Amino acid sequence: MADSDEDRLVLDLKNRDEKAYGMLVSQYQAKLRNVAYGITLDAEESADIIQDVFLKAYTGIERFKGESSLYTWLRRITINESLNWVRKWKRRFRWQHQSIDQEEGNAPDLVSDRPDPEESLDNRQLSGMVKKALESLPEKARTILILKEVEGLSYDEIGELMGINKGTVSSRIFYAREKLRESLKGVESEGQQ
Amino acid sequence: MLKVKANNEIICGTEIISRFMDNELHGDDLITVEKHIDSCESCRKRLDIYSKIGSGLNSFINAEASLQGQEIVEGVISRIRQKGNWLQGFKELVLSRRTFIPAGVALSIALASLIFLNNPAPAGPSAIISSLSGTGSLTIVVTPETRQTILWVNENG
Amino acid sequence: MKTKYRAPLLITFLFFVISLLLLPSSPAWSGTNIRITVKTILASEKGNSVDPGLNDIVRELQSLFRYSSYKFLGEKGLSLSLNSKGVVSLPEQVTMNISSMGIEGDRAVLDIEILRGGSRIIQTVIKLRNNSSINIGGPEYKGGNLLFNIFASF
Fold first, then answer.
1. Are B128 and B105 within one domain?
2. Which of A118, A193, B54, B115 is the most buried (most CB within 10 A)?
3. Residue A129 and residue A116: Cα distance in Å, rounded?
4. Do residue B115 and residue C119 have CB atoms under 8 angstroms apart?
5. CB of A16 within 8 Å of any CB in chain B?
6. Distance from CA of A70 to the nearest CA of B (A)
7. Could you give the C-alpha distances from B17 to A20, A171, B93, in angstroms and in order?
8. What is chain A's pLDDT, residue by residue, as a tens digit (193 residues)?
């Protein structure tokens, strides 16, 4: 969205123009939903979270100063809301997860060339496996991977968004990729056939 | 800046490949790793896997999250209307001319009454004598309650 | 501020300002003319009555003086601008000259001279609080004494 278009939209939003809000939601809900889903891995919950995000935008639009783009602002809210939800459910032991507890730059040794048995997989099973693989990642590592792979942010941008330094971003992305690589080794084998 | 030596051991299967994939290497580091990848099948395979993970992730999330898109739009608008109505209604009530002007008038009258009626009794006398001259004898008195100044002249001294 | 809220806010503010302007005890808005009212009263030991309208003036005097009767003789109003003089003609060739010397805070500075037949009885410069009075008395008249209640407002 061009700067002047966004300025006009922000003005309309601050004037509580319903049409402007409709436009905002239509424009950004899909992308934000991807971010929310990538973190929560719950389709219904991510839809609710996105609704909450836009409602927060409605009530808090006066606080938007234009220092970042509208989408960047909304995405930040989305990430916070999604992580809050995950942490809430983590406390309820909904998922098994492995916490990452590593020094900066020292990735765990996940490199392995162990061969896996062949499996016959359809799309649904594949989807399930991917989801399971993602679920096995700690939420911060998963969030960072989503921001890299789905949102295409740089390490600097991710670091700024998550409040961590570039080195930590790099090591977490590497860890997440290696973890997924291990988890999806069966899929890889199937693909190579 | 990461100083990458042309040493396969610190490149193969390490974070450096991940960074290379994300265009986070620059200058000499980039050149060194590019040269290494050209000659290392293991690293090329790993890059390929990372690339597939990335595109697979995108496809998966887009597929899962794209459901209920229109419902989100409708849901948000509906909630905004509810919230907006409440806020708007409240604002209209408080800030409308119907309420605002009478409230303003009432407030002004109340304030004026408060100031006017609650004027505390003056502490000093009603009149301060700066200079005084006359024939006979002069007496200055201030009444105890209302602090009124009385100046009495006895012409006959 | 949103345009639609400006008018109601402005109107309310104007009401507030107007109500402050109407307050009598607000010297900042009252201009420089001092309104003087001089009531002439005969205080006497003869009789036992207080004329209507004098109760507020004489209420405390009764405890200070031996007079038992207070009779209203007359009233004169003056409006004095800065450095102007007003003259009040009183019984028995008594005249009162009142000059306005200005306003200091909430007090009017007045130069008051009381003469009988051209001879000065008393001359004083006073600082009289707004909406307050001073009682100047003593000149003899018809077996009693004249009492002048000088009230100022501005």
1. no
2. B54
3. 15
4. no
5. yes
6. 17
7. 44, 11, 63
8. 666 888 888 888 888 888 888 889 988 998 999 999 999 998 888 888 999 999 899 888 888 888 889 999 999 999 999 999 888 876 665 444 444 443 334 444 443 343 333 333 456 667 778 888 888 898 889 999 999 999 999 999 999 999 999 999 999 999 999 999 888 776 555 444 4
CATH 1.10.1740.10 spans which residues of chain A?
3-91
Q: In what order do the strands lie in the sheet with C34-44?
A: B137-142, B149-154, C132-141, C144-153, C34-44, C69-80
Report the SS3 class of residue C22.
helix
Contact between B76 and A16 using a beta-carbon 8 Å cutoff: no
Cβ of C121 within 8 Å of Cβ of B153? The answer is yes
Report residue C23: phi and psi, to 5°: -65, 130
> What dihedral do alpha carbons A90, A94, A98, A104 form, nearest 10°?
-20
Whether the complex's predicted ipTM surpasses the cut of 0.90: no
Cite the residue boundaries of each domain of chain A with CATH code 1.10.10.10: 123-192
Distance of residue B63 Cα from the nearest chain A Cα, in angstroms: 9
**Is residue B131 domain-resident?**
yes
- Cα distance between residue A4 and residue A20, in whole Å: 15
Q: Do the Cβ atoms of A38 and A150 come closer than 8 Å?
A: yes
In CATH, what is the architecture of A123-192?
Orthogonal Bundle (1.10)
Burial environment of residue B22 by CB neighbours within 10 A (0 to 12, 13 to 18, 19 or more): buried
Shortest distance, CA A111 to any CA of chain B (angstroms): 7
Q: Give the domain range for residue B41.
A: 8-65
Of B13, B14, B80, the CB nearest to A18: B80
**Domain presence at residue B125:** yes
CB within 8 Å: B22 and A173? yes
Distance, in Å, from the CA atom of B97 to the CA atom of B53, rounded to the nearest integer, reads 62
Q: Domain ranges in chain C? A: 1-25, 31-153
Subunits adjacent to chain C (3 or more Cβ pairs under 8 Å): B
Does residue B3 lie in a domain region? no
Chains touching A (at least 3 CB pairs under 8 A) are B
Chain A residues with beta carbon closer than 8 angstroms to that of B15: 105, 107, 170-171, 174
Q: What is the domain count for chain B?
A: 3
Fold of A3-91: Rna Polymerase Sigma Factor; Chain: A (1.10.1740)
Whole-angstrom distance, CA of residue C11 vs CA of residue B154: 58
Residue B31 domain-assigned (yes or no): yes
